[in-house]
Amino acid sequence: MIFGWTGKIAQIDLSKKICEIENISFSILEKFIGGRGLCGYFLKKSINYHWADHEMPVLMFTGPLVNTLSPTSGRMTIMSVSPLTNTIGDSSVGGTLGAAIKKAGFDGLIIKGRSEDLTGIEINDYKITFVSAKNLAGKTTTQTSLALKGRGAIAAIGPAAENGVLFSNVIVDNHFAAGRNGLGLVFAQKNLKYITVKGTGKTPVYDRSALKKARDDILRLVSASPAVMGEFGISKFGTGALYDLMDARHMMPTDNFRKSRFEFADSMNAHAYKKKYNPESTGCAGCHIRCKKKADNGSGIPEFETMSHFSALIGNKDIETVFYANKICNEAGMDTISAASTIACYMEIFEKQLTPDQVCTVLKDIVSQTGEGKKLGLGSARFAKLMGKPHLSMSVKKQELSAYDPRGAYGMALSFALSTRGGCHLRAYPVSHEILRKPVATDRFTFSGKARIIKIGEDLNAVIDSLTACKFIFFAASIEEYAKVFSAVTGIKISGHNLLYTGERICYNERIMNSKRGFTKDDDDLPLRFFAKDNRSDDKVVPISREEFLYTREKYYKIRGLDTNGMPVHKTVLKLNLED
Questions:
Q1: How far apart are CA 291 and CA 281, in angstroms?
Q2: How does the average pLDDT of the chain come out, rounded?
Q3: CA 392, CA 383: separation in Å to the nearest integer?
Q4: What pLDDT band is residue 539 in, cutting at 50, 70 and 90?
Q5: Which of 19, 214, 283, 302 could form a disulfide with 307 if both were Cys (CB 3.0 to 4.6 A apart)?
Q6: Three-state DSSP class for 244?
Q7: For 317-353, how does the pLDDT look when each residue is reduced to its tens digit (9 = 90+)?
């Protein structure tokens, strides 16, 4: 008997309107765990297809801890090839969808093909039905969710994806964004408007008493963590708790990363949102941290990245504009980080400042793909290139950078450049040790030791995304505590060290896939702005030494087991029990 996993996946073909239920071998489950790991394993078989090809799958996988008592066990991964970056494109997303898929009897769904008409997939335990979604064409994510009320967990796209925006999202349960890589557009290309899932199954657990003890140990650690549960922590203020800290550390991306502090930060922080909107807490299935915040009218309070980019990055000092911009993006199913970054790039290119009304008008134009919005919907890298100023896009591998100035934390600089899904702070999440000092503090203004630290951080977060769990809980707990949870659920005796080895395999598999899509070390780089001297008055943060950056990148390649061009080598492939 398998514990933790169901051992089954649903292979869904939208072209033929058929579904086949297949078993996953236990050896594959052991090697890739679930979530991001299993998504990567199955995506590799189709990695040479274009993202819009009918044979390119959308993969949605849970992990062995989902639908158990494991802390923060409600997450899952959605993956395909990214329309925005051409890299592997994945997103860890919360809500109830992961638990619902598991309860329905599946570890994951693999969706291929393309429906002739706009379609929904409805899953109720093992029954999978294809339903016409013509009546939902052009509907917002909220309108779609209301129309599907009572049918279980919901993953849906909005008009941004239907109209072809390259950074469109999949929205789960109307509040949780599977963001960054344009996965909503992959749904739209398949004429897939939504997926609903209901289930009644239970996940078998190997040792419930051991799981309860391991859970209690983690909850005790979390309760003592100021960063998570403290008076000014994430549980109280959401991810917006980071806003003041980033500004104080001279890491607040301002005016398209030309500055690193925002003079109006005091009136645009999480405290200001709490005072103005009186938010209530909510969260993902199986999570007690409840970092999601909703206003008293039900609208979502912006996350830190959105809060920062729609204020400092575009020079906006009106809090209502940030709130409304967040609502426009979520209703349309559009990535807030890429949307704000592309607007910031547009503003710098044309040397103009947008009023609050103009910000919202531009966002709506991007959603509808009208006027200038049609070009902006391509993302900042393509837009800047069209305008003859590619250097003004603050992106890596065509994905816009999130709300951390890399000049203020060198581990973050390296992490942005090396991420397999484009400019992403979450792959290694060096904020934890460089800024929050968890598990231990590291010097943020040095590259010393950072090559190995970033490699280990990537391996760790690959495991977290595969189990699947929330990164925030690792501000308090460690991989050793989760190894005990994993062992209690699955019956597989494993150490934290061996889980990290699995994370290394998952990361290397992603490197293999990106290499097959033509990516080399030239793509593992930052915009030149971060290495150049400028006229900023901020003397706290200086340009990054390009020589030190390139030297550390070379060290990372060696530690990761890549060649000097950042490409996979057969020796490491064999060591990690992978295929070239």
A1: 7
A2: 95
A3: 10
A4: low
A5: 302
A6: helix
A7: 999 999 999 999 999 999 999 999 999 999 999 999 9
Average pLDDT over residues 509-527: 98
Q: 424 is written with which tokens?
A: 């992403």
Which 8-state DSSP code applies to residue 161? H
Please state, as a whole number, how many other Cβ atoms lie within 10 Å of the Cβ of residue 255. Answer: 17
Half-sphere exposure of residue 27: CA atoms within 13 angstroms, side-chain side: 2
> What is 539-580 written as a DSSP string?
-SS-PPPHHHHHHHHHHHHHHHTB-TTS-B-HHHHHHTT---
β-bridge pairing 76-81 and 58-61: antiparallel
Whole-angstrom distance, CA of residue 460 vs CA of residue 457: 5
Query: How many CA atoms within 13 Å lie on the side-chain side of 50?
Result: 5
Distance CA 234, CA 230 (A): 8
Is-contact 381 389, C-beta < 8 A? no
The answer to whether residues 416 and 406 touch, using CB atoms and an 8 Å cutoff, is: yes
What's the CATH number of domain 8-198, 3.30.70.270, 3.20.20.30, 3.30.1330.50, 3.60.9.10?
Answer: 3.60.9.10
Q: Where are the domains of the chain?
A: 8-198
DSSP states of 335-355 = -HHHHHHHHHHHHHHTT----
Q: What is the separation, in whole angstroms, between the first and last Cα of the chain? A: 32
In our burial notation (b when 16+ CB lie closer than 10 A, e otherwise), range 110-142 reads: bbbbbbeebbbbbbbeeebebeebeebeebbbb
The pair of three-digit structure tokens given for residue 319, joined into one six-digit string = 């809090």
Contacts by residues 222-225 (CB-CB < 8 Å, ≥ 24 positions apart) = 222/71, 222/288, 222/289, 222/473, 222/476, 222/477, 224/476, 225/475, 225/476
State the CB neighbour count (10 A cutoff) for residue 243: 28
Share of the chain above pLDDT 90, in %: 91
Question: Could you tell me the maximum CA-CA distance found in the chain, to the nearest angstrom?
Answer: 65
Structure-token pair, residue 354: 């947008």
Name the pTM for this structure. Answer: 0.97
Dist CA 516 CA 47 (whole Å): 7
Question: Quick one: CA dihedral 5, 580, 79, 506, positive or negative?
Answer: positive
Inter-CA distances, 117 with 136, 188, 317, 333, 343, Å: 11, 11, 44, 20, 33
